[in-house]
Amino acid sequence: MTVRWSGHTGASSYKITATPKNSPEPSVFAQFSGSTVMGSVNSLSPNTVYRMRVEAMDNAVNVLSSAETEEMTAPEVPLIEKAYSKRSDSITVEFGIVSGATGYIIRAENDNGFFSETPVLKSPETVVGLDPYTDYTLSVMSVNVGGRSQPSLPVDAKTVLVAPNLRSSSPSSDSIMITWDPVNNAVLYTLVMIMEGSDTRDKLNTSGTNMTYSGLQPGTTYCIKGNAWDPEGNQGDDITICQITRPPVPGDVQVQLTPGRSIDLAVYWQSVRGADGYIAVSSTGQNCSSNEEVYCIISPLSCSQNHSITVVAQNAAGYSDPSQPQDLLTFPCPPDVVWIKEVTPGNCSVMWSDIPWVDYCIAYVKRDDGLEENCNTTGRSCHFQCKCGYTYLSTVFAYNQAGSSPPGQIVNYTTIPCCPEDVSVSLISTETLEISWSAVRGAELYETIAADGSEQIHCNDTAPVCALSDLTCDSMYSVVVRPCSEIRGCNNTCPAHTRQTAPCAPVILSVTQVNSSTVQVFWTPTNTQANYSIIAEGQTDSLSCSSSGTSCYMSVTCGSMYEVSAYATTTAGLSLPSYAVPLETGPCCPEYLNVEQVTQSMTNVTWSPAIGARSYITSLTSPRGHAKCHTMDTDCLLGCITCGTSYNVSLEAFSITGHKTECTYQGFSASSCCPSSVKLYRMPNSTLRVNWRYSPGLYNYTADLYGTRSNYTCSSTAGANTCDVSEILCGEVYTVVVAPLTKDGTKVTFCPRKLYSVSCSGNTVGMVIYRGRRSVG
To answer: Which domain of life does this protein belong to (predicted)?
Structure first.
């Protein structure tokens, strides 16, 4: 028993004493140096409980400290009685039972470095995981709580050969083939065959690696056991496999079509021994199978097929030989390709591709309004009438003895849309045509084309109306309405309709005012044949003129603003107006003009307001000089007038933009000149004489004396320069005015006035004294 302890300081040696706890046997001890911490005590009894005491001692053999524990020794060493191999991967060991042992360990090892220990509870036991046909050395140890015993005396044993890996197959319904790979170190193989349900065994020995059994019963299971033999004559592992032979050929095979919504092919047969299932195979590559029933259905069937049907049985070994073939013809296929061709307008034909296994065909044609017709033929086409604007649906059925083909391809053919018959082309504006028509059958879209030889305008719409705008003015257009469908395209046979657009708008070159009441308008002709109308729109009036040439005259009113535009007219209609040209006529002359002489050298000219006038220039002209004023008013003062002179009177009226109108009026004659050096002299008999220096020319003069109590007047004849006033009151201040008379006898009112004081001398005139001038009041 081995004991381990912890070291003690100062200890020079340790003593271990083993004392049996329940036995009279003597104690056993062992002593170790002070540097040792583990030691063993030998010569103990197996399977015995010992009290183990460790004592630490100094050099004087004095015990420094001690410790005790109780442990059991291992059981006795067992004895192997026999070791042998029955399997290639194991050896079985038989050994004697040891008292006190709670278990055992079987140790296996060999020269190749293999080592294993297998815990067991009893004898015999088997060591597994070994290599086949290999030598092993085996020993057994007993175990209890105290540990394991020493190994037993070893025994040598060899594992047997491994079993051959048999592979089986059934090449035919009466044979089985067995093959295997060579087993290392094998010199002979034994095979034993037995049929399921039989006690008869067939045993064979061979040194080869394959074996074929023939003459067996079809569909029957056979079991084969095999093993190998080593050179020492030891039989190796055995293996058993079972193989069934292929089933026999199914008999009484029958085929027929099954009625119903879908036509299928049913195959019937008689069941055979050993079959797990059946497969019916057609020459077309289709098949069906069944595991329990004695029939199966091939579906779906293909049309126009000549089926050759065979049936094979199958099981785990494989398939039986096929049965005798049974033939069956299926219903025909519909034609692969069907098409409709319009041979001539209104005459169509349904045509189709060649169909095998067919006796005759029926072609059906249905129009989209429900009208239907059909034809029966052995050929490959049928004819029918097809009108424009319709869609025709057609399908072809083929027939033979098996029945009708399934529904085939449905083709449709749409005839070209019909041309509209009531096309109306209207000019809705100068450069826009509105085309309308009644909808026609088959048209999904209408293409309207207008061409004038230099351009084409297109309009596409689904509605039966179209407006073509931005056309060329004064052009003849050929308009065609083409109905179109997505399938057939457009009908290119529809007739054309002509319509001329409105004339082009003329271009006004100039507007020239010929005189105050007449203007001439010039324009560029923009059409081949057209009449042109000129319209001048004023605020209060509207004027016009027309011509087929390039100008016309128009009477206008003075002082007006006009917008002048031109129109062209043809049989197609009226053009758009030209761009307007503004026209402003000269202002009107005032209806009246008055010239009034205010002073000897100044006149006041007044006139009535003139329509369209913003300002005026008034002129008085004569060979002796002229006077002029520029004003925005309707009156004007003109100075520097020469008395006794005749003047020409004229007026120029100007508009706000500078247009001028010259107006002439009746001449004006300035009055005679006022006399100068007017003096008053006392004459006898209370008479005063007025004297003056007269102007050139023969004029009559009048002299007026104005006092506070009385007024006096005297006149002179032509050429005279004096006149007398009698019986005048003295003691008065008189205002004296001498003025010439105009041709109509009126008195000039603007001559200067002088003041004279006339005193009395008794009852008569005294002194006459000049008091100065007095302004004209």
So the answer is: Eukaryota
